[in-house]
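WARN retry 2 of 3 for item q-0093 after timeout on previous attempt; input resubmitted unchanged.
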Amino acid sequence: MSESSIASLLKKTEHYDKDERYMATSDLCEALKKHALLLQSQSPSSKVSDSSHPTHFIIDSESEPKICNAILRLLHDSSNDVQAMAVKTLRILVTCVREDPIVTIAQRLSSLILDPTKNDLRDVYTIGLKTLIQTVPMAMGDVVSQQLAERLMDGIRMDMSSESISSSSTATPPLQQDKSVVQDIVMKCLELLTELTTRFGALSFMTRQHLVMLQVVMRQLGSESEIVQKRAGQTIGCLAVVISDALLGRLVQSLWMQIEQESNWSTGGGGTMEGMSVEQEETVRKWKARRIDEEDVASTSLMVASAGGRNVSGKRGKFKNTMALIRTMCTIAGLVGHRLGQEQIDRLVPIFLKFCHPSNALAGDDLQMHQDDDEGDDDDNEEEKVGAEMRDVEVIDDDEIDLTDHNNEEAMKLANELKEACLSGFESFVLWRPVETQPHLHSIIHAALAYMRHDPNYTYGDEDDEEDGRHGNDDGDDDMDGASDGNGDDDEDFDADEEADDEYEDDEYDDDDDDDDDSWKVRRSAIRLLTAIVNAFARDPSKLWTVEYAWKKNSKQCTTVAGALVKRFKERDENCRVGSIECFTNLLSNTIDAASTGNIVLRSPDSMDVTSSASSQTVIDLRAKFVPIIVKGCVTQLSAKKAGNRTKSAALALLSTLSRAPGGIGDKEQIRTLFEHIKSILSGDTSSHSHTGNKSLKLDCLHFINVIITSPNHVPQDVMSCVMEQLLTELCNTLQDNWYKITSETLMVLSEIPILLAKTNATKQEKDVVADCLYHAIEPRLAVHDADQEVKEASLESAGSLLSILNDSLDPQKIEKLLSLILLRLKNETTRAASIKTLAEIVKDGVDISIIIDDVVSELAALLRQNRRSIKQASLQCLEKIITSSALGQHQNIVGSILKDLSYVIVDSDLHISHLSLQVCYSMLDVGIIPTAEINQHLLPAILNLSKSSILQDKALDSLLAVLEKLVNVNAVVFQELLVALKNGLLTVPESQNNVGATRQSISNIAHCMAAITSAAPELERNIVVSDLLSSIESFGNVSSTSSASFHIQLALRVAGDIGRRVSLGSIPGVALRLQNIFMNMFGSQVEDIKNSAAYGLGRVAVCSKPEFLPKILSALEEKDQKQQYLLLSSLREFIHCHQKGYGGEIASSIPQILPHLFNHLADKEEGVRTMVADCLGSLACLEPAVILPHLQNIANESSGGKCHATCATVLTSMKYAIAGKCDTLMIVSCMPTFLNLLNEEDLSVKNAALLMIYSAVHHNPQLVLNFMQQTISPALHELAQLKQERVVDLGPFKQKVDYALPIRKAALSIFSTCLDKCPQVMDVRGFMPILALALGDSEDVQLQAHQILLSNGSRYPNEIFAFVDSFVEPLEKTMNKKMGNKKGAELERATEWVKSAVRVMVVLSRVTDAMNCRSFADLVARIRKNENFKVMLKEVDDDGVSSA
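OK item q-0093 returned
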């Protein structure tokens, strides 16, 4: 767009026609967008410089002031549409103009907002200025802040007296203005100051203004306007995020001092500590004794500043002021609660409890109960009741207004708002500072339970019955109020409430329309607080089921948290009702998870009394005490006509969670009752498109049915009976719904019905009925072509389930129809994967697919040539099942083409696909399909090529050996030809692979293959091969490491050993002695690989020839040659490992011979020898734990206390190997305390070995250490993770600092990291954060570990990380600013990756947590992003997508 066009648009913005002005502004906006894109392409960092723009840009420097003036003029246009378009244009304008025009716009808009005569357009100006603040480039933040901060504070001061206004202010004195106008200006300025603080609060200019802004804004907490007070509190909350820790402490101190004064707390005027814990009373006494002159001067100045704005009197004014202070304090706690310390929480909790004391909570039932009390009660008792009810009046000494007067709506509203704010503050404390809140938790829970039923204007009518029932029963407490008490019977209580519940069901929500009653907000806050408490007790929620609290006014009735939540299912307000149900669902889920880890015992209905066996654990009789009441409460919600869909969905979610507990949701009658209500929901109107809530509820119902059907905690016969009686027909009808999610979920439910039916003793008639019903429901959906992908996949799964289990109940025509449809889906690319999975399932279950077998096999073979790895993998698995199930039958003529396609995917570039392909080949040979020509033409070349690969290992190697053995067994190949072909593969190894390690691995793989086919060959041919091997070894003399003779010797030694592992070579005359001589002589070779191969072969050849070889190995161990000892131990290790893998029969008889020799070398001076001994002992422990573990335990006890550090370390290392080898869990657990005691040894090597043992346990089998984590392991880990033992070593020209404890810190951090992944329930994540902060400043290796922990767990523990993110800033910045010095090559690359790792951590934390709300972290991000040195690195991190996030 040319310059003349811009001028034309600017002229049109002054047109008399508003439509012309609108269109001109819109066109100008589009032109500015193009201009902004050009600027962005020129400057990727999106910064606008002060220099003139290039001439080819749309807008030049001369046009900028004209455009800015035009937009400012349009902001007060007479047309609202033009104003809106001007604001939209302003958003683009501020991103693409220079600094001067932006400053001008900011000045003009702020002046217009402060102008008392611009009342009509002040909202538009505010929106415009807010848009400018939100969109202006961050680089201009300081400039914009300088222009706006003082002006906005002047606007906020306008409601003060003229003496309070600074001389520099240009605002009109408030005494000359209308109060409403001044209040509007103050509101707008507070709103804009909040935006300015949020965007630029951490920048340098704003940082210098924090104290002044706090003083100005805190004055507004005393404003006469409640809305101004609220807005000021929000602004203070935003300031609390960015101010320094010192200023935050002064702010909080100032607030609580003023709260004390307002409530007459510190002077004792009516204050009471009744209901407080001992810890709280002690805290109150401490700070009551401290006078104002001991407080920080700056805190006092803030308090005076706030008090200066107060111009209120009387009780109402004092109460409003107190409420504003409390609300502000709660806002601060919610935003920066993680920055509050123990002393601050200890002060604030008692203050908050003063205004939401449990005794002040009232329900309509309480008031009704008092009205019905006998008038002849004792006068003293009556006075106690009145005193308890008027406790709020005691707090505020004024007679003008009774805040506990339930007939005074204004008083009740104020009281409710204050209670809501206090409960919200408690929620923040529990969420952010659970450890610091622990001393006050009992009182907080008590208050939450009391206010959860705070409903003075409504009477539920059934609580009196509960109270009467309690007084009338002398046997004890309510069933729900003691989880670990006796096995009481609920039936009487369960039936006693029937009549009341029937009445409640009809009219439970009649008062939901009471708009004047806002007590529901208090109850909602209380429930949210309980939810936070439930989350805080997630690891061990037993106290929430067992500890009782009084929750009714003037009543001795007590209840647990769990019991109280269940009783509140009858809540009349849906928000609170849903909150109660969801909170209890969360508690139940945490309890079930805790039971799975052993922290809690859930008594199942069919279990014996487990109290004696688990006396240290909490036993919750969920089935007898809670399940009937939970199910009944959920049934009430599902059946209530006025209950909302949210309530019903929450009830279904609770029932789904309950299904995970032992006993599930109950017996057949309870399942039938629930299914009746589910049926009524599913049978609703499906034709209406407007009832999206009903559709969502149907989806929840279907999910619940699926959970019930698949749950192992219900009797299958009961569930199946209820499904057939009530739901089967309705489920089939539900498939007609036009919402794909309902259809797919219904199909998933139908797919589970045949599985459930198979678990029951169903008759043939019942199976036929179910099969016919399912077929007519599934087949039409399977045949539809234009269905959603989820529906197609679900229909395939349900069809597969039907065919697999109920194929005997289907007619042949129906089976053929379903198979033809599955084949059709197989040929479709979008449904191919699901079809292959379905075919594999039905073939595995023996379904005859002969009518489609040719097409299926041809299609699967063709899919092997595709690039999609997942399709290849699924096709191979399906082919194997087809072959093993003999589904090919008479169709073996297609096997040749299958082998040809298989040969193309047997390659070392994808070993897993090769493994699956070899499994298919083995299955063919195993069932007798032996196409000799195709094997020699296609399969054999691929196998020979794979056998010499240096990366062949694990499952692929095992499958290759199995195929080779099978080829020899079935005579599909000539043995001698195959042996020669494998041996010739060695000739190509040095030419194609120059790496020595790769060559060694290739030789090993060829040896495995040659040994496998030799072992499978006839005995005569096997003996000939062995004789040739020995002769070839003996014919070679001394060889060099690079000669081909060396490779042939290694191959022969390994082949001999692998053959000896499978068959006994000692039985061949003369072979044993020759082999002994060969192996022992080879120990003296100059070639290390030959010596290692000799040790390998000697150990393996002894497996099946123990009498001939084992004594020789053991006797040679006692010779003095240290090198031979290591090789002989290596042979012994191979011997034991082979037995561990199942070769050579039993080893128990040889253990008494082996152990003394191993024990002799426990404290060997060579670490390599000790490691070999530990490996052997660990492997033996896996084979014979009852023999080995007691020996190790005794040795550990005898060597502890500093007697022999090397022996202790070797024993611990052997336990590490035993744990990794899957040694018996119960036996290790019984010995574990002995080994864990070695953590207390002084020697660092012992500590390190103990930590490595713990790491092995956590990684391989966490159950071994779960019971020891809290008392033994965790304290030691916290100590050792901070251990440092540094020593300066003099190396002559320079000195070097050596940290001997570095391996220990690395091991401790590895354990923490693995615990977070494997067993997070035993981790105190908050307690670990200080350790992690120290690790971020440790050595490079430890830092990289800490970085990985943050990257992996940032999204899993965002709150815990956010609470300590400020402690991460300094070490991260130090790492990122690390100087590279003169590093070059690999050293420089490693250092760069180290820095890049820290940058990645910074980026991830800024995205997945609230870390940007931490001022120090936000400053760090800003500094790094401004630094030119990090631009490339940041771009790389962003391009990588920060995958760990």
